[in-house]
Structure formats: structure tokens, C-alpha cells
Design a protein that fits this description.
The protein has an eight-stranded parallel barrel, surrounded by four helices. α1 runs parallel beside α2. The chain is globular. It contains ten helices and eleven strands. Bound molecules: 2-phosphoglycolic acid (PGA). Pathway: Carbohydrate biosynthesis.
Length: 315
Amino acid sequence: MAMISTYLNPSSQLSGPKSCTAASPPLFSGLRRSSASLSTTQSFFHSVNSHTLRSSSSSNRTSRGIVAMAGSGKFFVGGNWKCNGTKDSIKQLVSDLNSATLEPDVDVVVGPPFVYIDQVKNSLTDRIEIAAQNSWIGKGGAFTGEISAEQLKDIGCKWVILGHSERRHVIGEDDQFIGKKAAYALGQDLGVIACIGELLEEREAGKTFDVYAVPSWDNIVIAYEPVWAIGTGKVASPEQAQEVHVAVRDWLAKNVSPEVASKTRIIYGGSVNAGNSADLAKKEDIDGFLVGGASLKGADFATIINSVTAKKVAA
Ligand code: PGA
């Protein structure tokens, strides 16, 4: 079991949003391994360990060929529709996605609201997989209002988005609770899009993302979503995103394994749109995107998916 956590030293050089002033090398506590089995992952750690990591050593990677990609995983783009849509608007969106031309070398996932998953599953091209936006911590039963991982699989979902900042900061889910959900969903063979990311005040205090436990690294995509960039139109600069992605990948390499570091997709989310996705995609540790608002427009979402072509740059 490993836990996702990263703290930056308050004196870190991690660059903040334009209004932030931050300085000097980042120190991290990070993904912590333990020998706990899946069954024991129900007792999750909630504390942050004192592991430190400096990302600066790897942030100046030299070019490794014609494809600017540090990880070996396929480009991944998820559309998080959040609590948006009606039967009619979703019909239109699905029709736009079905007729869009999408680059083949991208995994594409959309996350409709629960109540429209069946409609989407029955009308959307198989080229695009479906994610739920949440799942319960265990087997279903007397849990009013919840949806179980088994039910998601039954209805054709392949993925679930967990730990999104809106569930943390609006609804109040904590790391322990999210960790339980992640463990259970992974145990049911759902892929997990595990969201991490800091509030503006956390970034200003030197923290970049939160902590929760996961039982294995198979089937996880990490979405780094600085909360100050979500739905605000204030996208992280490619350099800001790259800096954290490098740190996460380095942490995985040192604390889980180089193989996991290479194969785990680390995607960026927060005000990604059709106009900024190509520049972000050029960064070698950005393996794709989790997109909110812009995923509600089929043409824009297709452009973001196709920004994978920006990764193919001259060495
Ligand atoms: P946004 O949302 O693209 O609208 O900023 C991203 C997200 O919340 O996943």
C-alpha cells in the first residue's frame, strides 16, 4: 500500500499562481509503502511521513527522442462532466463526440453524472470509456444515496474519479475516506483517476497535495489538479504543472519503483481548454488531462484529446 502525499517546504521554489510568491527547493513527504494487504487497507494512514524529496535534480531532463514523454503510459484524457447536463444536452454532446476525429494513441474517458451513465453508455462510441464521479467505500447495501463499485461495473463503467477537490472541499471527504474508496474500487477492477492538488492557501504555505492510501499502482491514473486552477480560468503554467508532475514521478521512482513511475499516467487538471492544452501537453511529464468545463463542448474536448500531437516534437 502506498499513500499519496506531498508537502513542499514553505521556503520552496515551487512557483505559485501569479499572485503567489514562493521560493527555494521543495521538500516532500510522499508516497509511502507498506506491506499491508488489500484487506488491511481499510485502516488507512492519515498522517504525513517525513520523507523528503528534491525534484530539482530531474527537472532539467534532456530530450529522449522525438516524442516528448517521460512516462511510458499512453496519453490519457478524461472529461469530468460534474453535475451538468440534461438528457437533451447530453444527447448532443454524445453525438458531437461520436462524430469527432480522435487521435488513436490516446485513452479517452468521460464521466457523466450517475443518472445519465446508462444513456451515455448506450449511445457513445466504444472508443470512449466511461467513468463514474464517485463510488462507495465498500459493498452496497443500506447506504442511502450511495453507488457501489459493483453497480458501476454492472452498468459498464471502467473508471471512477476519486478524491476530486469538490468532494474534499465542498462535501468534506477526507483522505482516509477517499483511500477506502480507492482500495475498494481497485479491488473491483475499476480504474481509479485519483485526484490530488492543493488549495491556494496550501500552496502559499508550501503544500502541494493531499494524502491518501492506495493498495496498488496498477490501474491508477494520478490527476494533479491545483484547486486554485479548477473552474477559475487560472490554468497552471506548463512549467508549474511540469514541476509538480516531475516531483510526483520522482517520488514514485524512489518510493514505489522505477517501473511504476514510468507507467503511471500523471495528468493535469484545472482550466484546461482547447487553447492551452497543446502547450501543456508539450511538457514531458504531463501524460494527459482531466477536463471539467471544456469537456462539455465536444469540439473543444476533441481538440484537447488531439493535443497529444503536440508531444511529437523534434528532439
Ligand atoms: P475545469 O475542472 O477544467 O473546469 O477547471 C477540472 C476538474 O475539476 O477536473
